[in-house]
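Re: the 154-residue chain
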Amino acid sequence: MEKKFENGMVTALDQATLNEVQSKIESLTAQGYRVPNLPKVGPKTEGIVSGLFSGSAVKLPKDLSTNKEKRLKRLAARFLERPTWGNANIYLHFLYKKCIGQEKAPKVLLSEKEERIQQARKAWKKVQVEADRLRLAYKTEKGDFYKQKSAVLV
């Protein structure tokens, strides 16, 4: 059986590896993430990314530098070991901006529920700051008034 990872990198940047990364990125939709217009990626030598930028096909450069190839392998391995929203976006950004040279890279977007939760939290934080300010005003006004009043009565 062939070793898939070695020193934190994918052993071979081939069609099967890229397809596996592609399918895991697409499987993030089962978790509620949105992956709009994700094109298919082929191997380095004859790879084609089709359908994202004005319907034209873009080839991955055959003269991909050794450092870029190593980084791409590392990012692919990181994503395959831990397929998260952040790792998917880092991989896609590097692939499209650094390897292919496009101005835009596709993004895996948060799920609608997560976006609503984040918006609700931002709203709560604003209200909480106001509540804390009012509480402080109340406490300074009250001071130790009731303690002094009860001490006099005893």
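The two ends are 86 Å apart (CA to CA).
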